[in-house]
Structure formats: C-alpha cells, structure tokens
Design brief:
The structure is a single chain. This protein is of the alpha/beta class. The protein has two domains: 60 residues, 2,3-Dihydroxybiphenyl 1,2-Dioxygenase, domain 1, CATH 3.10.180.10; 62 residues, 2,3-Dihydroxybiphenyl 1,2-Dioxygenase, domain 1, CATH 3.10.180. 17% of the residues lie in helices and 35% in strands. InterPro entries: Glyas_Bleomycin-R_OHBP_Dase, Glyas_Fos-R_dOase_dom, VOC_core. Pfam families: Glyoxalase. This is VOC family protein.
C-alpha cells in the first residue's frame, strides 16, 4: 500500500450554511453530490473531487471533538487569492517555508478550523487584510 494523496477532510459544524458559503467565497469550492446519509451536511468539490465533507451537528461540543491542528490545500494564483482575502476582510498570515519553495497562507474558517493554502513560492505577499 502507498498513500498517494489526501482524499478529503471531514468537519462537523453547527453553521452549515455559513461554512458552505465561506468555503465557496474564499476557496471557490462548490457543493456537489452527496450520499443520502441520515444526517445533514454537504460535500464541497474542487476539480470534480469532494475534498471537504461537512457534517451538520446541532451544536459543536469542543470537548468531544477530535483535535485537528490544521489541514492544507495546494493552489495556484497567490496574488489573486490574497486579493480575495483582503476584499472580504479575512485575516491571514503569509509565510515562506524555508528551503521548500512554498508560500503558506494560514487562515481560519467560521468554526475556527485552521487551514493553510500552499503556493509554489515567489516572495510572500504581506500578512493582514488591507
């Protein structure tokens, strides 16, 4: 067995509509087909693949949730992405990964989940929305 790629991330949320809108506006992900599970949720797609599975819960119980430090997505178009974040007033932190040629843009979704979007580097372009 060889792991070949990250398939998806599963997130529980009590703010389903807000999360769908945020991931659509910020990352360009679109809701798509989802099995008829007996609970609410949405699958968000990138390039024809469901990469974020949202599971609707009545309320988020932090003590019962598994720890997730962050998840990461690879992307292109760093300048356009930073412009999108600034236009929406979304706070972010932009860092170079020393020796790897990667610029990481760190941000947090409406539920407080940390994610970073990785770009093949040019110089990091600023840190806060402006």
């Amino acid at each position: 067995m060889t792991v070949t790629r990250l398939d998806h991330v599963n997130l529980r949320t009590a703010a389903l509509a807000e999360m769908i809108a945020w991931y659509g506006e910020v990352l360009g992900l679109e809701p798509g087909p989802r099995p008829p599970f007996p609970f609410g949720g949405a699958w968000l797609y990138c390039g024809g693949q469901p990469v974020i599975h949202l599971v609707e819960v009545e309320r988020k119980a932090a003590a019962e949730d598994p720890a997730l430090e962050h998840f990461a997505l690879a992307a292109s178009g760093l300048d356009a992405f930073l412009d999108r974040l600034r236009a929406r007033g979304i706070a972010f932190d932009c860092r170079e990964v020393p020796g790897f040629g990667i610029t990481q843009v760190n941000l947090w979704d409406p539920d407080g989940n940390h994610l970073h979007v990785d770009f093949t580097s040019g110089p990091a372009a600023g840190g806060a929305p402006g």
